[in-house]
Protein: Peptide ABC transporter substrate-binding protein
Organism: Caballeronia glathei
Amino acid sequence: MAGALLGSIGFVFSGAAFGVYAIAQYGEPKYPPGFQHFDYVNPDAPRGGTLVLANPNRLTSFDKFNPFTMRGNPAPGLGLMFESLTTGSLDEVATVYGLLADDIQVAPDGLSATFHINPRARFSNGDPVTAEDVRFSFETLKSPQAAPQYSVYFGQIARAVVIDPLTIRFDFKARTREMPLLAGGIPVFSRKWGMKPDGTRIPFDQLAFQQPIGSGPYVIEHYDNGRTITYRRNPSYWGDRLPVRVGTYNYERINYKLYSDNIARLEAFKAGEYDVLVENIARSWVRRDIGKRFDSGELIKREFPHHNGSGMQGFFMNVRRPLFKDVRVRQALDLALDFEWLNRQLFFNQYKRTDSFFVNTELQAKGRPSEGELALLTPLRAQLDPAVFGEMTTQPDTDPPGSLRANLIKARQLLADAGWTYRDGALRNAKGEPFVFEILDDTGGGASMEPVAAAFARNLQKLGITANFRTVDYALIQKRLDAFEFDMTSVRMPDVQVPGTEQVSRFGSKSADEQGSDNLSGVKSPAVDKILQAVVSAQTREQLVDATHALDRVLMHGYYVVPHWYSAKHRVAYRNTLAYPATLPLYYTADDWVTSTWWFKPAAK
């Protein structure tokens, strides 16, 4: 979240405070004052029609309209209802432009930022958006009633101060270039959300199907049984003429239908039940996304390139479990995944191996540490594996001259060094306990991940390790992940173009003990904490790159994840009645791109 909020006109922490239309973490904004629209939209796109979509993630049902709390499963598409003071563009990084705010001032010392709210801004109930609403939203999200990641994301924002009805100032605990952008990205909702007729309030963490009151372009029209939900474009939406909104959100309605698994979802698409399929399974793209509607041209398949950092997808190990405490054990498990075989046999050679938490970007560490990295790492030498100061890790390779056998021999030695030896038909520790663990996945994803887990388990069995693959309902797996009740699980961390506070939530020691946090593996390292501080406090792009390289280097040498694979393309199948702009964005998710910038072609006359 936080990484997607960054950016605009380069600001410095000197001289007088000033008002601008946009702020940048580094450099200058692409779009000048007075710009009319983003380059990747069609300002003349027609409006109308109902876009029907399927599950945008592994969610198969929902039981609330509040996306900001930990308990329960939020309905898909709720982001259509909420806005923030600023918004980013999809063709630059670390840049945001005014949305609810029409003026931004960064203090000379960088310890506060002041936002003036556009007097035209309105909530869906017609009320004006006020500074009090912004403060209420901020304080609610930082409270224990909201999901814990928000208190981490916004933890360095000390307070929100209402200056007047349309002006709010955020004070920061530290001077970092990220803070003004984080403040601008706080989701804003009305103080009346959850208010009863008698003036009492439903606790925020108990809001379920109470209609959210946001300022976004859509409102909920109807829903059914936690399996379908329809959003209608607000006819009184306040922001249509804003440059950041021109050419966007062109559908009259957006309807989500949730299917029980990938097979049901695919068959429904081929039957014409919904309009767009974002395909994440290589085998399906080649073998299953076919049929008469594709042959006739009614359904179109296309791969769209992107420049996103691809994030980290892999089998995440829970190092809170004694079984995974030893880094040698974790490295041995990494050696047992044969990516080259998987890519040939299951993925039709469509993927590349992930070998970084910041793969496909300049933020990926390579080779030996640079001088800038060493300046951060050397004071931490006593806390770090000496290997961190050598060559960057590379993932095991089974293409000749490499082989799975050679990798398993190395893994066996690592396990022996960690006290695990093969006897009595299994790999056992000094107490005689066998090496057995569970790979947890949800039922919606099982169709794609089970063959991978089975191949992985076969290789582990050669070492005497038993890996049991288990699928459970999405709601249950989410509860287990929130409580860190798992051994190993398949997860993809969202990509970020400009690392920042979200990295603290993912890898910070404090987050390791907070249920519901993003630190699934349980990384708890004072050295990592120190490097994270360098990431969030970087004052130049060069400092950020050095700090992120150092972070990547330490995390990869920690072997917290058995990395999977990535692609630099979005695979999208869609109905031929849909159209999209001629200029593609650079940094985007396919689902959000479709909902925010595509449109229905006008009916032929």
In short: The first strand starts at residue 18 and ends at 20. The chain has 17 helices and 26 strands.
